[in-house]
């Protein structure tokens, strides 16, 4: 895990060995949020690299998240610049079989 400026964390995991293009995934999270943990676990299980922006104790980053998403809850997730929503929406994409399609699209 590498620290980026302003509390951002870059989680780089498992570039796919089959040469598939990896989606650009960004999550705004807080450290102990169970929904954040669940969303990250799903992405990690799929071998997806993502940028995590921790908003714990950082009102400026939370404000940035709220301005981009129109929401105040975490996680807030983007895939290739497309706003997914939160954990419930991410899990719904997975259940419907659409998440892999979203992840396969290039940015």
Structural summary, described in words:
By secondary structure, the chain is α+β, with helices and mostly antiparallel strands. The protein contains four helices and six strands. The chain has helices at residues 34-45, 59-69, 87-96, 99-104; strands at 2-3, 8-11, 25-29, 50-54, 76-79, 82-85. A six-stranded mixed β-sheet has the order 1-2-4-3-5-6, sandwiched between helices. Helix 1 links the parallel strand 3 and strand 4. Helix 1 runs parallel beside helix 3 (87-96). The radius of gyration is 13 Å and the shape is globular.
The gist of it:
The protein is an alpha+beta fold and 107 residues long.
Helix and strand topology:
Layout: E1 2-3, E2 8-11, E3 25-29, H1 34-45, E4 50-54, H2 59-69, E5 76-79, E6 82-85, H3 87-96, H4 99-104
Distance between the termini: 23 Å
Overall mean confidence score, pLDDT: 87
Strand order of the largest sheet: 1-2-4-3-5-6
Query: What is the helix/strand order?
Result: EEEHEHEEHH
Instruction: Please state the structural category.
Output: alpha+beta
Give me the CATH architecture, please.
3-Layer(aba) Sandwich
- How much strand? 15-25%
Shape annotation: globular
Number of E-state strands: 6
- Figure out the total of helices: 4
> Runs with pLDDT <50, length 5+?
12-19
Helix proportion range: 25-40%
Q: How many domains is the backbone divided into? A: 1
- Radius of gyration, CA atoms, in whole angstroms: 13 Å
User: Which superfamily, in CATH terms, is the homologous superfamily?
Assistant: Glutaredoxin
CATH class: Alpha Beta
